Amino acid sequence: MRRVLITGMSGTGKSSLVTGLAGLGYKAVDTDAGWCEPQPDGRQRWREDAIQALLATQDTDVLFVAGCEQNQVRFLADLREVEPRLRAIADCEIDTTIPLSQVVRAILQAAGAQLPG
Asked: Which one-letter DSSP state was computed for residue 34?
């Protein structure tokens, strides 16, 4: 089972990518919708129990999960240190300034998933 975490700041196209992948029949979850809980300061944070259960699902070979931007806030203060580490362990990095159809194709290739006809 492969789990593909789609990260990026707000407005980078995570939700559009999830919609595109789901439209092709892949299990793709946007965690902004129902997977987060409000914090006292008004921000959202992942419901860790729900995310753990999601990642443990075995009903698909490839699961695409887009993370809500607020969960990255804890990394922002250390961005100069954390970003190179994330890039170093990432299996791939996809430039989302290309057309959405190309982003979908690139992430499917990176995940080793079957490409659409």
From this structure: T
**Using alpha carbons only, what angle is made at residue 32 by residues 83 and 114, rounded to the nearest 5 degrees?**
75
Cβ within 8 Å of residue 92, ≥6 positions away: 106, 107, 110
Beta bridge partners of 46: 36
Q: Is the dihedral of CA 46, 50, 51, 54 positive or negative?
A: negative
pLDDT for 2-27, tens place per residue?
Answer: 888 887 777 778 889 999 999 999 99
* Nearest one of 17, 9, 30 to 79, comparing CA atoms: 9
Report the alpha-carbon distance of residue 71 to residue 73 in Å, rounded: 5
Residue 63 token pair = 């699961």
